[in-house]
Amino acid sequence: MEDPKTDIPSVILNLTTTESPDIQQETVLKYMTADVSLEHPVCSVRPGPNSRDKVLKIYQWYRVLSPRIGLRVDNVVFDREREVMYVEVVQMFKLFFLPVDPLPAKLVTRLELRKIKNLYYISRQEDFYHTIDFARLVLPPIAPLVWFLLTFGAIFSVVATKVAQQLGIWTPSVQAVPGDREELYEMDNISSPRDRPFTTQTRA
């Protein structure tokens, strides 16, 4: 990539939504180093000789599991000095054997780049999902249950903290006032990346 921040959305779309396995393979070979590594909640590829071949197989399996994928790149941050990129993505992924509609699942991908002859190549990929987003990705029907459990966890934490503070444990000397400093968080109405449509297929 000559300009990673500009180029990475099309690279991601060709890796994930293209209808051509040849384009997907060409993208992996063109933009990833031969020793690229991959960290994902359900798989891991360590860096090594020709580890790129394993990463390619994982991307191919990704398309076998979900023949049609919708994906949207919402935000890209490139730290040129550290050669690290963060990409916020929302995807619509549906396992082919599940008779349910997909739900949007958000993830943040961290990419480590390596500069070779003035071009940037992906040398490491890490994918990060929130718990509920991962549930939406792999098994959409359980997403409400996961949301309930997370909400219960928050309520339990609040109640347990109040009980602990009544016992004098971890109590601030001055209690926060509800609504204090709200003026710090006022924002103008701005359009959200979520308003943008998904890309479902890319053609050569």
TrEMBL record:
Transmembrane segments: 145-164
Keyword Metal-binding on entry: no
Protein name in the entry: SigF-like NTF2-like domain-containing protein
InterPro entries: NTF2_SigF
Native organism taxonomy: Eukaryota, Fungi, Dikarya, Basidiomycota, Agaricomycotina
Record-annotated SigF-like NTF2-like domain positions: 1-169
Sorted UniProt keywords: Membrane, Transmembrane, Transmembrane helix
Domain of life: Eukaryota
UniProt xrefs under Pfam families: NTF2_SigF
